[in-house]
Every structure is written in C-alpha cells, then in structure tokens.
Amino acid sequence: MRIHPHDLLLQELPSVCAETRAKCLEHLARCSECREKLSSWRHTPASTLVAQILPFGRGKTAADYEPTLDNLSRSLRSLEEVYGREREGAPRLYAELVQHPIERNTLRVRNCPRFHTWGFCEHLLERSRELNFQDPAAGEGLALLAIEVLDHLDPSLYGAESLEDLRARAWSYVGNSRRVQGDLQGAEEAFAFALSFLRMGTGEPMEKAMILDLKASLLTRQRRFSNAQSLLRRAAAIFLELGETHRAGRSLVKMATVHSFVGEHERAIFLRYRALKLIDPAREPRLVLVTCQNLIDDLIETGQFMAAQKLLAKAKPFYKKFTPWLSSTRKWIEGKIARGLRQTEKAEALFLSTRSEFITEGAAYETALVSLDLASLYAEQGRMAELKRLAEEMIPIFSSRQIHREALAALDYWRQAVESERACAALAAGVAAFLKKAQHNPELRFQRPE
Fold first, then answer.
1. What is the pLDDT of residue 29?
2. Where is 448: in which H helix or E strand?
3. For position 386, what pLDDT does the model report?
4. Which of 74, 35, 77 is nearest to 54 (CA)?
5. Is residue 200 within 8 Å of residue 158, measured between CB atoms?
6. Dihedral angle at the C-alpha atoms of 422, 428, 432, 435, nearest 10 degrees?
7. Among 15, 332, 342, 376, which is disulfide-ready with 354 (CB 3.0 to 4.6 Å)?
8. How many Å apart are CA 377 and CA 419, to the nearest integer?
9. What is the pLDDT of residue 397?
10. 218-245: per-residue pLDDT in tens?
11. How far lies 283's CA from each of 193, 254, 318, in Å?
C-alpha cells in the first residue's frame, strides 16, 4: 500500500478480508507510524506488534499472513474483552469508593489492587469532567485519584506510552478544575505536567487537541488572549482533521468569547455562526443555547437588532428546555432588543422585571448591568427623579454582594454623577462597559472620565 491505511481500516483489521489484511500487515511491517497508531488504539505495547509483524515483508501472500493474523486477532480480542470487563465494573468500584470518607480514598485506591484498572481510571476522569463546574474541588480530587490509579497500572499490559497519554489527560483535568476554582498558578503547573506527559505519550492528536483546548481557557482567564487564540486555532484544526466537528465547534465558541472580551464583536459573530453549524444540538443543547445567547449579545453590541430578534426567536425552544436557568437572561436580552428597536415602554418593563429577578437571585453583576441599562433609558428621556431613585438603591444592594472594590467605585461615581445631574446615557454605557471588563479582570482599575 503506497499510502497509509485509513484509521477505520486499521481499527477493524482482524475482521476485514484476507487480501486487504495482508496488504495492511505488509504496510505495518514497513511503517512505524501506523504501528504506533494501532498500538495506541488497542493499548498494546508497540514492541508486541513489532514482534508479530516485522518477520513478514514483501512478496507474502494472504495465506502466508494467516498465522500472524490469527495471533494478532486473538491478542486484540483478548485485550478488548479485558477492557470491556474493566469498564463494565468501573461504576461499581466508584460506588464502593464514594461510600467512604474522601480523605481515605487515596489510601484505599493505593492499597486495593481491584482499583488498579484502565477502565476505573477512565471512569474517574469522566466523573471529574462531569463534576468540574458544579463542584470543581471534587472534580480536581477525582482527577488526582485517577493519577494515583495510573501509578499502579502495568505498562507491559496497557502500553507505557498510552499510560502517559492518559496521565496527560488527567493532569489537564486537574488544571481545568484549578482554573475554575481561581487557582491560576496551580492550574498553570498542572498544564505544564500535562504537556510534558503528552510528549512522552503516543502523540495521539485527539489527546493533544483536548489539552490545548482546556489550556486555552486558562490563558483566557489570565488575559493572555493572543496565546489563547493560537491554542484554540490549533485545537480546532486538529478536531476538524479528525472529523470531530462538535469539538471543533466548541473551540470556535471559545475563540469567539476571546474576541468579545477585547471588543472585536464582528469577528466573534463570524465565529459563532460558524460554530453553530458544527455543534451537534442533540449532544450538547445547552452549548447551542449559550452560543446563541452570546451571538445575540454580539449582534446587539453592533446594532444588528433585527438579526438579534430573529435569532432569539429561533432559540426559544432551547430556552424553554432550560427554563428557569436562563429565563431572567432571556428577558434582559428581549429588553435590549426592544430598546434598540425604539420600543421604549416594552424595554423599560423588561428591564424592571429582570432587575427584580436578578436581585432575588443574588446576581450582583447582572443586577448592576441591567440597572445601568435602565438608567441609560431614563437618562435619554430626562427622567431625573427615576434616575436618582435608581442610583440611591444601587450602592446598598451591591455593597452586600460580592462585587469587588473597583466595581463599587464605578457604581459610586455613577451615583454621584446622578445626584449632581451630570449623568447621561453615554456615561451609563461607559460604566457598564467597565463593569463587563472588570467581571473577567478583577485587577482592572476604574478611571474616572475627565
């Protein structure tokens, strides 16, 4: 075979016709890259494949390869059965483990050989991923527990390089959990470990892309936007090359978010539209909704209110599915669109309702931002009495919430401007813009306008 066999052909090698298998084995005898690929998929040490395949070279017939194929098929099927049993038993092992105090789990895993399986390690990492945003500390704990399991797995059975791949994934999950918890230095250290282990692994592109995608989230949090974009471009390209369009769509969504952070809304709009074509709604409907919502925000920022209204109508089925999770946010978006379309009475009613809901929910930043939208509307209409009443209510509400000092300073400056009747719609928009930036960068200092 002059070209590399298709990945699917290699994965189904034992079951294809004899002639095709013979050609594949001849290629494998000469191609270390494909042997490494097959080794990583099957978690079979590459040395085992070399020993089975290299004695055979050019000029062999299909019949000559049959003994090798039989041995290889039996070996692969035996391993598949082992992994199948491990994965089937993993949930039971996990249920057993969580019945005990968390602080004892590491010792139990270390001392009990029945926990020392690839399938159980995979299960821990999947649970870590699922828990990460609900309880990132628990997610980190499970990923670290998976690393403990990895320390006890047999390289001769699972393949040393494949274990390094899994170790890299585990450390990337640790890094992502630490990012969510705000431990940025700890997250950076974990990702450094992940990339070092990845270099010692099989070079599996999927593992690399997933780690790059996760690390980009840390770089975004660190406001290293250019570096984050570079990693996301690489990850998206790998995902697309592998046919993982949904994952590529997720990376594009992250790229769009970075562009929105720096005010490049037109570029963000382009990327979000492209991402929506790649994301599988059945696989992650909430991602579709969040992407639509952020796209609507970008359209509003660029004055494309009719396009935003149409997209909001298309997204209604997704909002209904996740109500009340985003019902307040949806109402706020409707208010912004109404204001942009000069439907001022409707906009005011929606802003007031949304503000009340955000206060009840304790959503401090969202309350501040919708209050400024409402204040801007009042300022445009010259309704100073309502504007002053709104400003008087703002500081006591926000002082009792988790809003950092610079954000409170911005809100206090706005209150003073209202009291002295210097407030205008442009000033409200400026304070709102600062609060949006400060939400993602608590170290940002508020600069009073001249």
1. 61
2. none
3. 86
4. 35
5. no
6. 10
7. 332
8. 17
9. 66
10. 999 998 999 999 999 999 999 999 999 9
11. 30, 18, 13
CB 165 within 8 A of CB 175: no
| In the chain, where the domains are located | 7-81, 362-450
Q: What are phi and psi of 173, to 5 degrees?
A: -70, -40
Rounded Cα–Cα distance for residues 335 and 340 (Å): 9
8 Å CB contact between 183 and 212: no
pLDDT of residue 364: 76
**Residue 292, SS3 per DSSP:** helix
Nearest to 407 by CA among 433, 373, 375: 433
Nearest by Cα to 435 from 407, 403, 409, 401: 407
Whether the bond into 396 is cis, omega within 30 of 0: no
d(Cα 350, Cα 353) in Å, to the nearest integer?
A: 5
pLDDT of residue 69: 52
Model's pTM, two decimal places?
0.76
Please give the pLDDT value at position 390. Answer: 83
For residues 368 and 353, what is the distance between their CA atoms, to the nearest angstrom? Answer: 14
CB-based burial label for 125 (10 Å; 0-12, 13-18, 19+): buried
Give the per-residue pLDDT at 403. Answer: 63
- Assess contact for 334 and 312: CB atoms under 8 A: yes
- Looking at residue 321, its pLDDT comes to 78
Rounded Cα gap, residues 399 and 427, in angstroms:
21
Peptide linkage before 324 cis (omega within 30 of 0):
yes
- Helices 225-241, 245-261: axis angle to 10 degrees equals 160
* Residue 415 and residue 394 in contact, taking contact as beta carbons nearer than 8 Å: yes
Write down the residue that tokens 């369009």 correspond to: 245
pLDDT under 70: residue ranges of the chain: 1-26, 28-83, 323-325, 395-404, 438-442, 449-450
CA dihedral 118→119→123→125, nearest 10 degrees, is 20
Residues 355 and 429: their CA atoms lie apart, in Å, by 17
As given in the structure block, the two tokens for residue 186 are: 């700890």
**What single letter denotes the amino acid at residue 411?**
L
Q: pLDDT at position 179, please?
A: 95
Q: Are 347 and 359 in contact (CB under 8 A)?
A: no
If 0-12 CB within 10 Å is exposed, 13-18 middle and 19+ buried, where does residue 99 land? exposed
Q: Helical H runs in 98-135?
A: 105-111, 118-131
Distance CA 319, CA 290 (A): 10
Q: Which of 333, 324, 331 lies closest to 353 in space, CA to CA? A: 331
Q: How far from 249 is each of 217, 240, 270, 336, CA to CA, in Å?
A: 15, 9, 12, 27
DSSP 161: H
